[in-house]
Design brief:
Strand content: 5-15%
Radius of gyration: 24 Å
Strand order of the largest sheet: 1-2-3-4-5-6-7
Order of helices and strands: HEEHEHEHEHHEHEHHHEHHHHEH
Largest sheet: 7 strands, mixed
Structural class: alpha/beta
Number of strands: 9
Number of helices: 15
Distance between the termini: 60 Å
């Protein structure tokens, strides 16, 4: 077999990395190379694109070190029994690619994951070596996200955070039963143990930084994880509950959701088709409700149907409001922030604007219309100076009135 070129391997390993969604760069420490010191930056605008909380676009080189793997996870295209093209980089080759891409202004950082070769600890050492050479050999100050391997030696998992801005450990599937069935080489206990190791190291590093400014930083952008949606029988209620537990136990920055995608030569235990992408979107919306809108996990789960699934035609916030109409309407001129955040159609920025504006004057419906995309969704759930929904909130067909209209495909040659 002819030896693969760097570009051929890059094509294979960049494509193999596309299934990992957990590559956002929010929360990283700001570093730059002003004054001729170092190379790279975590700031500015910038081929994988992630977005920081302030809206900045962060371009990342997103690749695998190798797609060879000794594990046989049913849902993974890189599993050892899969008939796929294989490739591998050395740590130095990844370093050279990262620097070359950065100098051409293609990227601002690196997202690096890998299949498992030889052993988990050997692979983890290779991942860490890439980050070490970049940081110590080239004073690289750009963003680095390392996908850590829970089966590796805990000391190696802990070392990763000394070089990376963010580390992540995928829980893979929402339930232990699903993980046991679809990823027999993985252990839920090992995964959670590794996440606990990272959490403890982050806390210790923060405490040390408070006492000694020279103490090294450890994963300043925290840790994240990812769950595959639709590969097993877990309901949305199961997934919401699992995500909430992970946030509480391990202080995660983000839980990412990735809709299962059928792969070539798929195992017979996998579903034949992928779940609707809108399901993934609804789970992200439910995640937002817990993180920014003050909803308890149990309240988000109340928005699901009898089978534990979130509705696909409306967002979970609207679904919850329709189930608990006794909480509405809310007076925009008097209600506390917590109540306003529950009004469908009002986001965090809109609520903050309402709170600021009502200190000056009484708000009318036209004022609210300027803060929301859909006034029709908002009207049944609020009271303004010149508006009361009267019986609208209690209408039997309210869901039909506030649900977004389905897109209609127009005929190209209609008369």
């Amino acid at each position: 077999m002819a030896q693969q070129t760097v570009m051929e391997r890059l094509e294979i390993l960049a494509d193999a990395a596309k299934y990992d969604a957990s590559c956002a760069s929010s929360g990283t420490a700001k570093r730059n190379s002003k004054g001729g010191k170092g190379i790279g930056s975590t700031e500015g605008m910038g081929i994988c694109h992630a977005y920081a909380p302030d809206g900045r676009c962060i371009s990342l080189l997103k690749i695998l070190l190798t797609n060879h793997c000794v594990f046989d996870c049913h849902y993974c295209i890189n599993r050892k029994s899969s008939n796929t093209r294989r490739a591998r980089f050395t740590p130095q080759e990844v370093v050279d690619l990262t620097l070359a891409f950065y100098r051409r202004n293609y990227i601002e950082g690196l997202f690096l994951s890998s299949g498992i070769v030889k052993s988990s600890s050997h692979t983890m050492e290779q991942l860490i070596e890439v980050a070490r050479i970049l940081r110590e050999g080239h004073d690289f100050r750009g963003y680095i996200h390392l996908k850590t391997i829970p089966e590796a030696d805990p000391e190696l998992v802990a070392r990763a955070g000394l070089y990376a801005d963010r580390v992540s450990i995928n829980v893979e599937l929402p339930t232990v039963a699903g993980l046991t069935r679809l990823a027999p080489d993985k252990s839920a206990g090992q995964i959670e143990g590794a996440m606990g190791t990272v959490k403890d190291a982050i806390v210790e590093a923060r405490d040390a930084r408070r006492k000694f400014r020279s103490a090294p930083k450890f994963a300043p952008a925290g840790q994240s994880t990812q769950m595959i949606v639709g590969a097993d029988a877990a309901s949305d209620a199961d997934i919401v509950g699992r995500a909430s537990t992970l946030y509480d136990r391990f202080s995660l920055r983000r839980v990412y959701y990735s809709a299962f995608s059928p792969i070539p030569d798929a195992s017979a235990v996998l579903p034949l088709k992928r779940p609707p992408l809108i399901r993934e979107h609804r789970l992200y919306q439910s995640d937002w409700l817990m993180r920014f809108y003050g909803y308890a996990p149990g309240e988000v789960q109340q928005a699901t149907d009898a089978g534990g699934m979130l509705p696909l035609d409306i967002d979970p916030k609207l679904a919850w409001a329709l189930k608990f109409r006794d909480r509405f309407p809310v007076d925009v001129n008097r209600a506390p922030r917590e109540a306003l955040l529950r009004v469908p159609g009002l986001g965090v920025r809109a609520v903050n604007a309402i709170l600021a504006a009502r200190r000056q004057r009484r708000l009318r419906l036209d004022d609210i219309a300027r803060l929301t995309v859909s006034l029709a969704k908002v009207r049944p759930f609020l009271v303004a100076e010149d508006w009361r929904p009267v019986l609208l909130t209690d209408k039997a067909d309210l869901r039909t009135l506030v649900a977004p209209k389905k897109a209609e495909q127009l005929e190209l040659f209609a008369a």
